[in-house]
Specification:
This protein has 3 domains: 123 residues, NAD(P)-binding Rossmann-like Domain (Rossmann fold, 3-Layer(aba) Sandwich); 145 residues, Rossmann fold (3-Layer(aba) Sandwich); 158 residues, Succinyl-CoA synthetase domains (Rossmann fold, 3-Layer(aba) Sandwich). By secondary structure, the chain is α/β, with parallel strands linked by helices. Strand 15, helix 11 and strand 16 form a beta-alpha-beta unit. The strands form 4 sheets. The protein has a 7-stranded mixed sheet, with helices on both faces. It is elongated, with a radius of gyration of 25 Å. The chain has 16 helices and 19 strands. Helix 6 runs parallel beside helix 7. GO terms for molecular function: acetate-CoA ligase (ADP-forming) activity; ATP binding. Its EC number is 6.2.1.13. Keywords: ATP-binding, Ligase, Nucleotide-binding.
Length: 448
């Protein structure tokens, strides 16, 4: 499916009046810096100015292109596929009005026409696709920066909101696909594709339901063996399941079955959008981590909150080796607590943090560290950020700097060095939990 996410050429079909969906998609492609050939198509012809460029509108597609993006009335889509099928490899059908509103026969006709021509279909009733590393933004959603997260979304609106939120969270994306009714290509196809995509480090999946359970299980097994897969499953309740069926025409099915499959194959299931991006940030930094953790803080309260959350999640607050506690005693003020969680007290500076991280990191009972910083006004947060960056440690370090303006510069310094901040102790503890799940799954896979 490289032709979808790394295309050399694209044709966009629809109305190119300002504000029309086809116009907005065309604008996104042009302004996103796509370097391939771009052909707008409408039977009326003419010219369109978009993104500072004037493009001639073709009355019909005369050239071969990799991808067609189609935003025309649903009833006209099958005949268009029949007309252009010999000139395209794949089509992204934005148009709604198919099985999601009961037009099952129209959707079946679309798929039949596509298969006759050997064309793969994304959609219909979808929001489009991004191939971010190809500067290809074939959607009307907000553009994103390059990175390692591939987002697969059954819902276009959810996908759009998630992309915007990802920008706010500083997440980099490799790709985005909204697949809508999944008339041809499904979440299972995309799971397999992104599992092998070299620019994708982490896969995030929003699903309401699947059409082929066996195919999904096999695809999930394949993908999780290669990369972390984060899943946000909607339609868990009875009412939610009915809503999901009316939304995309898919069967949500029993949530307990999905839950069992996710657990069996080591997919990281999250409960809400905020968690989806926390998990994405976590796996962008580290592949996995053990469940024995050490907490280093300059404030007792957040350390206690992190401890409570960690234990509730089943993580182990590591018992530190005697040598570790002796080494900590050698340089920490007597007011500091050298038990885990380790409290460096409020005036902890660069040296105190750096030394503490290095000493604790050497402890054989510690798999991963949670470092908390609530800086007093007389210690700049960037000073503590540099201590974390400079500390010699080969184990996962999850960071919780809080809050707001007080830590803004420190968070910026951390981000510049690829270290993501988790705004609360509880969210930081959850990140360590996800790393431990991934480690446990990998160890289980090796044993079997």
């Amino acid at each position: 499916m490289d032709f979808f996410f790394y295309p050399a050429s694209v044709a966009v079909f629809g109305s190119f009046k300002r504000g029309a969906i086809a116009y907005e998609i065309l604008r996104n492609i042009v302004e996103g810096g796509f370097k391939g050939e771009i052909i707008p198509v409408n039977p009326k012809g003419g010219e369109v100015e978009v993104g500072g460029k004037k493009l001639k509108i073709a009355e019909k597609l005369e050239k071969n292109v990799d991808v067609a993006i189609i935003a025309i009335p649903a009833k006209l889509v099958p005949s268009l596929i029949e007309e252009i099928g010999d000139k395209i490899k794949g089509a992204v059908v934005i148009s709604a009005g198919f099985s999601e509103i009961g037009n099952v026969e129209l959707e079946r006709e679309l798929v039949e026409k596509a298969r006759e021509k050997g064309v793969r279909i994304i959609g219909p009733n979808c929001a489009g696709i991004f191939g971010v590393h190809a500067d290809f933004f074939g959607s009307f959603e907000v553009r994103v920066k390059k990175g390692g997260l591939a987002l697969i979304s059954q819902s276009g609106a959810f996908g759009g909101a998630a992309l915007a939120m990802g920008n706010e969270e500083g997440i980099g994306f490799s790709a985005f696909v909204s697949y809508g009714n999944a008339a041809d290509l499904t979440e299972s196809d995309f799971l397999r594709y992104f599992a092998d995509d070299e620019n994708t480090k982490v896969i995030a999946l929003y699903i309401e339901g699947v059409k082929d359970g066996k195919k999904f299980v096999e695809a999930l097994r394949y993908a999780t063996a290669k990369k972390p897969v984060i899943v946000l499953k909607a339609g868990k309740s009875k009412s939610g399941s009915k809503a999901a069926q009316s939304h995309t025409g898919s069967l949500a099915g029993s949530y307990e079955i999905y839950k069992g499959v996710f657990a069996q194959f080591g997919a990281i299931e999250v409960e809400e959008m905020e968690e989806l991006f926390d998990a994405a940030k976590t796996f962008e930094m580290y592949e996995s981590g053990g469940g024995r953790i050490a907490i280093i803080t300059n404030s007792g309260g957040p350390g206690v909150l992190a401890t409570d959350k960690a234990e509730k999640l089943g993580l182990e607050i590591a018992r530190l080796e005697d040598k570790t506690t002796e080494d900590l005693k050698s340089f920490l003020p007597p007011q500091c607590s050298i038990k885990n969680p380790i409290d460096l007290i409020a005036d902890a500076d660069y040296e105190r943090y750096k030394k503490a991280i290095e000493v604790v990191c050497r402890d054989r009972n510690v798999d991963a560290l949670l470092v908390i910083c609530v800086p007093p006004i007389f210690i700049p947060s960037e000073e503590i950020a540099k201590a974390i960056i400079d500390a010699e440690c080969n184990k996962p370090i999850i960071v919780n700097f809080m809050a707001g303006e007080l830590v803004r510069e420190g968070v910026r310094v951390l981000n510049a060095h690829g270290i993501k901040n988790f705004p609360t102790p509880e969210r930081a503890a959850k990140a360590l939990y996800w790393l431990s799940l991934r480690r446990a799954f990998k160890e289980r896979s090796i044993r079997y």
